[in-house]
Amino acid sequence: MEKAKKGGFLVFEGIDGAGKTTQAELLCKRLASRGTPVFATCEPTDGPVGRLIRRMLSGTLPADQRTIASLFAADRTEHLTDPETGIRRMVDTGIIVVCDRYYFSSYAYHSQYMDMEWVIQANRLNADILKPDITLFIDVDPQICIKRLQTTRTHLEIYEKIDIMTQVRANYLAAFNRLAHQERVAVIDGNDSVENIAKAVWAQVRLVI
Question: Any idea which positions bind ATP (predicted)?
């Protein structure tokens, strides 16, 4: 009997403007060029809960930060378990799923407003359903990120402020340290060229797929 191809779950993380979306796209193209079944996705999703979250992030729908954190966890569960497009199903059928943001985003962004352990516990079900094979954190100076956003956006979201972005980066690093025994994380210098960052990403991905 032919052995079933192994799927995988690769996650990109970073503060806003770090270039993780670009790197996720490049990785998907590289995998596809090798004949690897690959699916690109992101959070928040385009589902009903995800659309609600996007309104809150834009500031058009004010909401308590605990509400936003809870909705992110719920959107993530649906993202994982949808019977047709769920990440868990895709990975189980041999597809490499590349996701732009996952639960480390919640740990980093929401722990500005509440205890990080609360956020981790709120996402415990999601971690039990599926942990990434690797989380790729594109680490860029917040000052560089805010300048990028100011030149490419007409409207900044509620978390896209230099003081918040600086704290979020620190929270990411704290979360990685806190969960080092449970999660595989690669911190990649995102201040380099797009091409060199892509090479560093690929070197890490090759270790897990």
Answer: 14-21
The CA distances from residue 151 to 31, 62, 197, in Å, are: 31, 26, 22
Q: Is the pTM of this model over 0.85?
A: yes
| CA quadruple 193, 165, 54, 47: dihedral, nearest 10 | 60
Q: Model confidence over 65-122: pLDDT tens digits?
A: 999 999 999 999 999 999 989 999 999 999 999 999 999 999 999 999 999 999 999 9
Going along the chain from its start, the domains and CATH numbers come out as 8-205 (3.40.50.300)
**Annotated binding residue at 16?**
yes
Place of tokens 């609360």: 118
Q: Is 8 annotated as a binding residue?
A: no
- Say whether 35 counts as a known binding-site residue: no
Token pair of 96, please?
A: 């490499």
Binding site annotation covers 94?
no
User: Could you tell me where the DSSP H helices lie in the chain?
Assistant: 20-33, 48-58, 65-81, 87-92, 103-110, 116-122, 124-129, 142-152, 162-178, 194-205
17, exposed or middle or buried, with CB in 10 Å at 0-12, 13-18, 19+? Answer: buried
